[in-house]
Amino acid sequence: QQQVKQSPQSLIVQKGGISIINCAYENTAFDYFPWYQQFPGKGPALLIAIRPDVSEKKEGRFTISFNKSAKQFSLHIMDSQPGDSATYFCAARTGNTPLVFGKGTRLSVIA
Amino acid sequence: DTGVSQNPRHKITKRGQNVTFRCDPISEHNRLYWYRQTLGQGPEFLTYFQNEAQLEKSRLLSDRFSAERPKGSFSTLEIQRTEQGDSAMYLCASSSASRYTQYFGPGTRLTVL
Questions:
Q1: Using a CB-CB distance cutoff of 8 angstroms, which residues of chain B are in contact with residue A6?
Q2: Rounded distance between C-alpha atoms, residue A27 and residue A4, angstroms
Q3: How many angstroms separate the CA of residue B41 from the nearest CA in chain A?
Q4: How far apart are the two ends of chain A, measured CA to CA in Å?
Q5: β-pairing, A105-110 with A100-101?
Q6: Which of A109, A106, A97, A111 lies closest to A3, judged by CA?
Q7: How far is Cα A109 from Cα B39, in angstroms, rounded to an integer?
């Protein structure tokens, strides 16, 4: 049973547009929700993370929205750029335990 | 902070051979994790260490897989009698005990022919 479900599988966005990626989780014990960005041939790099005591966190063009009651969280990329083209993974964990990842979203930003 | 390093970056081997990968974590991090990532999937947890103690192993870690972290520094992941299904990217990550952030290395791409 997949603990973190991510959608969509792939996404094409025009340059300057907003990219939105969604994740849903089932384990209410999760208390840390990071997003990772991965370029081909590279390891995942932490983009932004949130804890369930806040509903939104913004860092530059990247925003996480968190809905605890719905057990959902999403990543918004504002003013998307071609350099943002990558695969994005949501993840979750309880305490300092191993991460559980979603299956990833391949984002393509086209000019 | 030099980041997490992994060696080799690529490994091609024939089925049935043994392979060993190395991970050097960020120096002050006492937690070290191994994940496996297949094409089009997210990383899947294999095992992790706190200092030299192996705290948890996933059911994905068959008896052909063994991991060590002597002296709580670098770690090695060995796969014995490799199978074609072992072909994947093997990722290492590290974190400190007080902070939740896991930092990933560049991975080792294994191809089993």
A1: 42
A2: 9
A3: 5
A4: 38
A5: unpaired
A6: A97
A7: 21
Mutation for A interface: B29, B38, B100, B101, most A CBs within 10 A:
B100
**Cβ distance of B106 and A100 shorter than 8 Å:** no
- pLDDT tens digit string along B57-67? 998 888 999 99
Q: Which two tokens stand for residue B34?
A: 């191994």
Q: Let me know how many helices (H) and strands (E) chain B has, helices first.
A: 0, 11
**Angle, vertex CA A40, rays to CA A32 and CA B36, nearest 5:** 55
Q: Which residues of chain A have a CB within 8 Å of the CB of B100?
A: 32, 49, 93, 96
Judging contacts by C-beta atoms under 8 Å, the chain B residues touching residue A98 are 33, 35, 45, 48, 56, 58
Q: Do A93 and B31 touch (CB under 8 A)?
A: no
Q: Give the model confidence (pLDDT) of B30-86 as tens digits.
A: 999 999 999 889 999 999 999 999 999 998 888 999 999 998 899 999 999 999 999
What are the distances in angstroms from CA B73 to CA B11, B53, B60? 23, 11, 24
In the beta sheet, which residues pair with residue B75? B23
Q: Are A61 and A109 in contact (CB under 8 A)?
A: no
Q: For residues A95 and B23, what is the distance between their CA atoms, to the nearest angstrom?
A: 23
Per-residue DSSP letter, B9: S
